[in-house]
Design the sequence.
């Protein structure tokens, strides 16, 4: 893996935060009444915004063997981050999207339950150091479930990187409880 240059990622963090302010779209009452949803789609559709976000997500990443992107926006980001780090990428899929056999984990959401899966054949995860990537960190349950899934398959999750962290929902604390306080969480921006 090529080394990540801290000065370059520091500059990208600044550019990424500017792109979020400039391009993010605020949508009232989505996905339910009273919620103000910050849509990052316009940020990612902007070439400079996407470039800055991808580089910013690599900030502080060292000694990573694989990037795992969480379904679905994490796929977009994960592939680009993996390319930047010169490592492979793995899609952590929602249940029922992969052919068997799969490794799977079921977990609780604030509104029900969900399942995440990765292939059980065709790739060896044992001993691999994985960076987990997603667009938003809210309550942290999905990130912890994805990390648990990767750990069950033999990988070690060495960090979590997201574009936006919704601070008031406690996701960082959930990750610390689920993965240990030593697993760094990197957010490009806070909301």
Sequence:
């Amino acid at each position: 893996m090529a080394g990540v240059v801290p000065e370059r990622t520091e500059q990208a963090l600044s550019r990424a935060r500017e792109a979020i302010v400039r391009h993010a779209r605020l949508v009232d009452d989505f996905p339910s009444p009273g919620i103000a949803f910050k849509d990052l789609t316009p940020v990612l559709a902007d070439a400079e915004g996407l470039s800055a976000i991808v580089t910013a997500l690599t900030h502080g990443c060292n000694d990573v063997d694989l990037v795992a992107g969480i379904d679905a926006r994490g796929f977009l980001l994960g592939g680009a981050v993996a390319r930047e780090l010169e490592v492979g990428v793995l899609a952590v899929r929602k249940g029922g999207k992969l052919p068997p056999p799969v490794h799977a984990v079921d977990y609780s959401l604030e509104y029900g339950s969900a399942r995440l899966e990765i292939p059980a054949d065709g790739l060896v995860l044992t001993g691999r150091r994985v960076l987990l990537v997603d667009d938003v960190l809210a309550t942290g349950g999905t990130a912890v479930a994805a990390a648990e899934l990767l750990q069950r398959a033999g990988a070690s999750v060495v960090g979590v990187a997201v574009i936006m962290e919704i601070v008031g929902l406690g996701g960082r604390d959930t990750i610390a409880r689920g993965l240990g306080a030593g697993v760094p969480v990197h957010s490009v921006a806070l909301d």
